[in-house]
Amino acid sequence: MLKILQVNHFFLDGGGRERYILELSKGLAKRGHEVTILTSDYTPTGKEPLGEEARNTKGIFLKTLKGYLVDVPPGRVVIPDLMNWLLKNDKYDVIHAHGMGEQVVLEAFYIAKIKNIPFVFTPHFHPYFAYQELGAQKIWKVLQETQTKMIVENADATIAFSNLDKKIILKYTKASPRSKIFIVPNGVDENLPKVKQKDIKEVFAKYNIPKATHYLIFLGDITNPRKGALLAIQIFREIRYKLPDSHLIVVGPWGTRLKTAQSLEVLMKLLNKLVKAGAVTITGWVNDKEKAALLSGSDLLISPTLYDSFGVALAEAMFYRTPVVATKIGGIPHTVRDGIDGILVKNPYNIKAFARACLKILTDKKLKEKLGKNASQRVKRFFLFKYVVQKMEKIYKILKLKYASRKD
Predict the structure, then answer these.
(1) Identical fold at 3-187+384-407 and 197-382?
(2) CB-CB neighbours of 53 under 10 Å
(3) Domain 3-187+384-407: CATH class, spelled out
(4) Second label for 140, Cα 20 to 30 Å away, from 146, 188, 276, 401?
(5) Do 295 and 306 meet the contact criterion of CB atoms below 8 Å apart?
(6) What average pLDDT does this structure show over 207-218?
(7) Per the confidence metrics, is the pTM higher than 0.70?
(8) Which residues pair with 120 in a beta bridge?
C-alpha cells in the first residue's frame, strides 16, 4: 500500500484539473492505496460537489486549510499554513502537486526535498499567452521561466499528457530536455453514467430546453475567458443566420475566482438577448447524470478555447458520441484528430470559420455519426482513467523503491 499526498490550491469544486485529481485519487484508493488530498477551503461557487464525492470515497482523506484568493497570479489561492502542516504531517511515500506558478506547489516541492520524499509534478500546463484576456501574460511568462522551470528540472517526475504537451512545457519553461518528464494521458471516468432517451427528455424538460432541430452545447467555466464562452455565443449567433431553428445549451459554473468584469458584461448582454429570444438555455452547474444527458442530447460540442493541455470536456463529449468543434491549439490535436473525431479551427477568434465547421457537421447527418463513432472509440481506447491510474501507480512505486534504496 502507498500513502500518497495530492496537493492543489483549491479542490472542493472546480474544473478539469480538480476532476483529474479526484478521479486519480478514486482509482488509487480502489487499488488499495491511501490518498490524502490537501487543499484550501476556498470554493468559487459556494458548492462542494468534488469535496463531497471525495469525502464519500473509502481510502480518500480530504484535508482543507484556510485559503485566500489573490490577484497575482490571477485566480490563484494561497494557503498560509500549508508548509507548517506539511512539516508536521510528512508520513507519505509520494507527494504529488498540481498546477504551475503557485505557492502551494512550490512549498510542497520544498517539503519533499527537505523530508526526502519523492516529488511528482503535474503542471496542467498553459503557456503564458493563454492568459491574455486576463492581462497576465507577463507575470505568467516570468513564473513559467523561473519557478515552473526549476520544479520541472528538479522533480522526480513531471507529468505531461502527451508528447505534444511535453514539447510545449519544455519550449515555454526553457527547462532542460534532460528533465524527467513522463507521458501519462489525461482521461475520463470509464464509469460515466449511461444515458437512455428518457433521461435526455427528463433533463431537457427540467431545464425547459425548447424543441429545436439542432442542439449545440458549450461546457466550461463561463466566467473564465480562456474557455471561450463569449466566443461560443458569437459563433452561435453566426450559425443561427443559416440554421435559425438551432439552440445553444450553456453548461458550467458561474464562479467568482477570475475578475473579468468587462468581458463578462458583454457576455451577459449577448446571453440575455438570446435567452429572451428562446435561443439559449443556461443551466449553470449540473451533476454528472444531467451533464451526460445534455451531452448525449446535443448534436455537437463547441469549444473555442484559447488553450487546453488536454480538454476534459471534449473527451466527455466524445465518450457520448457527440462530435466536437474546437480550437487547434495546445494538446487538443492529440485528443481530437481533425476530420476524424471532430473538426479543429486554428484561430478561436475566427467566428466565421468556427461557424462553418459547426454547420458542416449540423447539415451532414452521416458525417456527424461518423465523427461521433470515431470519437467514442478513441476515448474508450486511449483516454479512460483506469489507464491513467495504472501508469501513475507504476511511477509512484518506482520512485518509492528508488528512495528506499538510497536510505539503505
Answers:
(1) yes
(2) 17
(3) alpha beta
(4) 188
(5) no
(6) 97
(7) yes
(8) 96, 157
Q: What is the 3-state secondary structure (H, E, C) of the chain?
A: CCEEEEECCCCCCCCHHHHHHHHHHHHHHHCCCEEEEEEECCCCCCCCHHHHHHHCCCCEEEEEECCEEECCCCCEEECCCHHHHHHHCCCCCEEEEECCCCHHHHHHHHHHHHHCCCEEEECCCCCHHHHHHHCCHHHHHHHHHHHHHHHHHHCCEEEECCHHHHHHHHHHHCCCCCCCEEECCCCECCCCCCCCHHHHHHHHHHCCCCCCCEEEEEECCCCCHHHCHHHHHHHHHHHHHHCCCEEEEEECCCCCCCCCHHHHHHHHHHHHHHHHCCCEEEEECCCHHHHHHHHHCCCEEEECCCCCCCCHHHHHHHHCCCCEEEECCCCHHHHCCECCCEEEECCCCCHHHHHHHHHHHHCCHHHHHHHHHHHHHHHHHHCEHHHHHHHHHHHHHHHHHHHHHHHC
Domain boundaries defined on the chain? 3-187+384-407, 197-382
**In the structure grid, which three cell numbers stand for residue 196, read together?**
437512455
Is 32:1 a contact under the CB 8 Å cutoff? yes
pLDDT tens-digit map of 363-384: 999 999 999 999 999 999 999 9
Owner of C-alpha cell 517539503: 111
The alpha carbon torsion through 89, 394, 11, 97 (nearest 10 deg) reads 60
Residues 6+ apart with CB under 8 A from 208: 281
Cβ atoms within 10 Å of 251's Cβ, excluding its own? 23
- List C-alpha distances in Å: 166 to 125, 171, 346, 366: 9, 9, 20, 36
Say which residues have a Cβ less than 8 Å from residue 52's Cβ, sequence separation at least 6: none
| Distance, CA of 68 to CA of 42 (rounded, Å) | 7
Instruction: For residue range 57-110, list pLDDT tens digits in order.
Output: 999 999 999 999 998 888 899 999 999 999 999 799 999 999 999 999 999 999
- C-alpha cell belonging to residue 360: 458542416
The confidence score (pLDDT) of residue 261 equals: 46
Residues 198-208 have pLDDT tens digits of 999 999 999 99
233 φ, ψ to 5°? Answer: -65, -40
Angle, helices 312-319 vs 16-30, to 10°: value is: 60
Q: Work out the angle at residue 59's Cα, subtended by the Cα atoms of residues 54 and 64, and round it to the nearest 5 degrees.
A: 45
Cβ count near 190 (within 10 Å):
15
